[in-house]
Amino acid sequence: MSSTKYIEEAADYLKQRGFKNPEVGIILGTGLGKIVENIEIESEVSYNHIPNFPTATVEFHKGKLIYGTLEGKKVVVMQGRFHVYEGYTLRDVTFPVRVMHLLGIKHLLVSNASGAINLNFKKGEIMLIDDHINLQGSSPLAFRGVEKMGERFADMSAPYDTEMNKKLELIASEKNITLHKGVYASVVGPQLETRAEYRYLKIIGADAVGMSTVPEVIVANHLKLPVSAVSVLTDECNPENLKPVDIADIIASAEQAEPDMITLFTELIKEL
Length: 272
Prior knowledge:
The chain starts with a helix and ends with a helix. The chain contains 6 helices and 9 strands. The mean pLDDT is about 95. The protein is α/β, with parallel strands linked by helices and about 270 residues long. Helix 1 (about 5-15) crosses helix 2, helix 2 (about 90-105) packs across helix 5 (about 215-220) and helix 3 packs across helix 6 (about 245-270). Strands 5-8-7-6-9 form a 5-stranded mixed β-barrel. Helices cover about 30% and strands about 25% of the residues. Helix 3 (about 160-175) links the parallel strand 6 and strand 7. The protein has one domain (about 5-270): Rossmann fold (3-Layer(aba) Sandwich). InterPro entries: Nucleoside_phosphorylase_d (IPR000845), Nucleoside_phosphorylase_sf (IPR035994), Pur_Nuc_Pase_Ino/Guo-sp (IPR011270), Purine_phosphorylase (IPR011268). It is an enzyme of class 2 (transferase). One of its GO terms (molecular function) is purine-nucleoside phosphorylase activity.
């Protein structure tokens, strides 16, 4: 079976379960699931019921695809995402983006939890991703037959949609939300970085580091799907004063910043 067939099977299954013409796709990161409470849910399906879909293995990721109305728009939300560190391939990780695109989404919004490399950024604040560095060692487009799905040599000169990013910055200033702007570096994980790695990330121009998002953004660009992404900064990565990181603390920081992220996304969806 071609991977196109896999994507079509998953999309057909979801259409039968009421996932009709969603306009916006949303991918929720670690500790960032509460936006779902703002949605009038019409249908939800566990990942393990969707044909060919990977299954979430991280304990604090939910593992459900949710369809409903948010601010008058039909949305499809990934509550729980996939990571390379769980043993998935980059094609597995990005499979849901291709499925959501086939369902009809016109915009993609992505959130993640990440560590602040830029020490002017503080824990509990939010960063709008302006650009990224892919340190995951491969590409979700590196497979035979990719040209059947879009341009093999996808242009990445402006991977994040300028128009949506401008709107997010405007919303942040109107709502008094601190919204930094910077470069996100995506690593494999799951181990956190050493002091030397944090120094290296700073030298190469990263403002924040995480273990997701970049593969989905590459595929969105391959599909010519406008995408914006925000990082909730859950820890400060100062190599000169590095303390052991507690995952419970990361989740708590994500939850603290989550209301601001929800405001940004809901207000943006209103305007799309």
